[in-house]
Amino acid sequence: MERGNVYTIFFAVVLCLISSSALTFVSKGLEPRKNFNMEIERQKNVLKAFGFDCAGMKQTEIAALYTKNIVESVSDKGGSIVQGKKPADIGKSEVGTLLPLYTYMSGNELKGYAIPTSGQALWSKCYGYFALAKDLNTVQGITFYQHGETPGLGGEIESAWFQDNFKGKKIYDSSGTLRSITIVKGQVSTLADKSRHIHSVDGISGATMTGDGVNTFLRADLERYEALFTNLRKGLK
């Protein structure tokens, strides 16, 4: 009886080792494909922030569209472009110190810039991209592609109706002061201060705290990029 138990335990251990080894092998084998899918998803969301419609496109088509229109670069906190470096080259210790920048070029014509934006909302950390026209003031679009907010409430930040509200809004006022974009409680049309309308978007019913979180991290991200925006306006590269 004791011998039988030892055999059973030995068999279970060997089976576990074989299974774990097989799973590790499969995971490693699928890792390049996983990384490729993640890269395509990232490219799709950058394009979406600029207004491209990638619905129904094959991965190879998205990659080709991205390569044709988007120029990647990296800036330091002082607003100077770091030569020879791309967002993928930013190490963990450099996050927050080096800033990714995505420039939309249609042929030789500058169309706009996009930056990543992320931060804590109500239940989760949200990730997205925020795009500006070449004046670095007018919003071209925003995407939120990863979050854990409540479906039907805060989760509506990924919906087209919500994201479309940002288009055409301004992040600076007439004096050149950064105002960012504020998700208000309720509707922008009800704000008594008309000067706020161009810097605000309608809120999501029942998701005030999600909106507050987005307001906080979007403004913080724009503040980090202000030195770069100033230099870009001066024509510095």
What is the residue-mean pLDDT, rounded to a whole number?
90
Structural class: alpha+beta
Distance between the termini: 78 Å
The total number of structural domains is 1
The total of beta strands comes to 7
Shape: globular
Query: Major β-sheet, in short?
Result: 5 strands, antiparallel
Description:
- With 237 residues, this protein is α+β, with helices and mostly antiparallel strands.
- The chain has one domain (46-233).
- The chain is built from five helices and seven strands.
- The protein has helices at residues 2-49, 59-69, 160-164, 208-224, 226-233, and strands spanning 70-76, 98-106, 109-120, 125-133, 139-146, 182-183, 200-201.
- Strand 2 and strand 3 form a beta hairpin.
- The model has no long low-confidence stretch (mean pLDDT 90).
Brief characterization of the structure:
The protein is α+β, with helices and mostly antiparallel strands. It has helices spanning 2-49, 59-69, 160-164, 208-224, 226-233, and strands spanning 70-76, 98-106, 109-120, 125-133, 139-146, 182-183, 200-201.
Please write out the topology:
Elements: H1 2-49, H2 59-69, E1 70-76, E2 98-106, E3 109-120, E4 125-133, E5 139-146, H3 160-164, E6 182-183, E7 200-201, H4 208-224, H5 226-233
Parallel strand pairs: 6-7
Antiparallel strand pairs: 1-2, 2-3, 3-4, 4-5
Helix pairs in contact: 1-2
